[in-house]
Each structure stands twice: as structure tokens, then as C-alpha cells.
Amino acid sequence: MSFRKLTSIAFIIAAALCTLSCKDDDESTVPPSLSGAMAFNLPEYIFPESVIKMVPSGVTHPDGEELGYYWKVSPTMKKSDTTRFENGLDKNGNPSDGSFTHKFSDTLQTYTVQGYAYAKGYSYVSKTSYTNVVKGGIDGSITNLELKDKPSVTAGSVTYPYVTIGSTDWLCRNIADASAGAPYGNSIAMSDVFGRYYSYEEALEVCPEGWQLPTEADWLEVAAAAGAEDAQAYDTISGVAAALMGNAYFNDSLMWEYWPEVGDITNSTGLSLIPTGYAMLGARASSPQEDEYVDNRYPQAQFLGYKEYAAFWTADKVEEEEGMAYYRYLISKQPDLMINKGDTKTFGAAVRCVRKTAE
Prior knowledge:
The protein has 359 residues and is α+β, with helices and mostly antiparallel strands. The chain has helices spanning 3-29, 191-194, 200-203, 216-225, 241-244; strands at 35-39, 45-46, 51-54, 57-60, 68-74, 81-84, 100-103, 110-118, 125-133, 142-143, 152-155, 158-165, 168-171, 182-183, 196-197, 249-250, 253-254, 278-280, 302-304, 309-317, 324-331, 338-343, 347-348, 354-356.
């Protein structure tokens, strides 16, 4: 056997031994894991300057020893904050459960919260959650609708600008009456941002005094103002969507995506419809639990179609189908004003209210 071949074999054996050795070394340097998964509660939407307490749970030490915890909030915290060391005490020497209390700023944006459980000799366990600081009102999270200079009415603590279309005044914001319906994501902070999602039965009761739910005839008047010719009741109305849509932003995120079929949004009617989607409300709770951040009136509610649909109840029931009523809606990628039927108890849509102008 040649010297070159012997050298080659020796090299292969040495490489194999090195690979096995390196693999063993790598595996030995990976610390074991703590038991369980990190958990803590964080509301998805909160008011500016909310103070939130997050209590860690779910992680244990395999040997039953104490854990430490540290936290970070982005983009506002440059360094992490240790709330409990492995001796069970906080930085002041007091017993601690590892809870973290943070005051969020008034900047309307998304915040990332990261919580970590750690112990010497073990890999840390972490969880990342997100919350959004939002603000209701005309100058809040919804922007670019130019509503400030319009005439308005106030109901409760909510201000509603309105626009006159034909012989009818229309509110330019979704109703946010907190005595009924559900806010987006069941988050209380969203009530006066997107407005609320109401069943048909609730929609009949939430308009301000002197205002009412629009009929199909009212929607046909809007369609005519948007340029529709020969629009028919209870039918699709072609080509009017861009004149009804408000080119709004939610916390600086564009709400209506551009689609060539719709074209440039003009909002020429001034109605300023926004794509807050719709809700499948489910059963209403008989005794809703009180919570600072969550509205539990409809605990099983599902909120669908945000940035894609804008759905609004009409006052018209479906004569041939008991328990059903009509709603008008827009779809982001279609240029038409559509119509559909919803269950009067479980389907949730937004509400715009109208009143007839003086003769």
C-alpha cells in the first residue's frame, strides 16, 4: 500500500474521531431546559399610559428550586428589568413572585413585551407578547378622514361628525355606545376606535336621540350621490365603493388596501366608511364578568374581515325569513356596494345612523 494511500486513510480516521469528539463536546455544553412554558396575560389593545401588571407562570425548576425573572418592553426599554433573582427576592431584597408592572407611553403603536424565566445551569424559557396603544375620538388612532371641521353631535362621551347626503344627515363614525354590542377583539380600548359590533336587535336601540338606523331607501340615496344610476333595492350597486370609502389609517397603518378594480379612494360622499370587518357574536353572557380591559358581554365573539370588509346594518328585516335582516357591506377589492342577510341575534355589524334634514 502506498504512503499516499496510508496518509489518506489516517486523515479520514482522524477526521471521523474529531467529528465524534466535537459532537460530544457540543452536546455537553448545551444546558438542560427548565420545565414548562412561560405564560403571562397582556391585553391586545390598551389606552395610552396604561399601567399593566404581568404575572409570570407556567415554568418550574426540575429540582424544585427557585427561578429568576427578567423583562423587556420594546421599543421603550433599552435594558431588561430583573424582577426576581434566583433567591426569590427582588432588587430591594423583598420576596417577589416575579411580577412586572409597566406604564406604557401615550405613543400610538405596537409594543413588544418579552418575559424570561431563568436558573443557573439551565436554558432560559421566554415568551413574547404584543399590545397596541390606541386612542378613540376624532384625533385618535383613526386618522386621515378630515372629520374635525364637520358639524357633529355628541352622545354620551362620544362625538360623531356628520355629513348631509341628499335629504339625509349621516354620521361619519361608527356608533360606540358601550351599553350594547362588543368592541373589536372584546378589547374595551377599541370601543371608540372602530366603534362596536351590534346585533340587529341592539342596532335598533343605539342611535343618538333623533337619529335612527338607515333604511334601504337611505342607502339608495347614498348610492345615487355616489354616481349610481338606476340602483335597485336589495341588490348589488355597482361602481360606488371608492366614493364611500374613507382613506383612513389605523395607528399609521393604511386600512383600505389599494385594488385596481376599485381605483383611487375619493370618499366623495364624505361617508368615510372604514374596513372594521364584522363579528360572529355568539351567545350573550347572562352575567358578564367585570374586567378593566376586556368586555365580556359576548365572550365567544369572533371578529373577522378587518381591513377587508365594512359591514353596516340596515333597518330592513327580511320579510320571508324570520330572524334575518339586511346589511350593506363593502369588500376591499370590489368596486360595488353589496347586500346580504344576517341573523338578528348573533351576527355583528357596525352601525351608522341617519336623520332627515329639515324640509
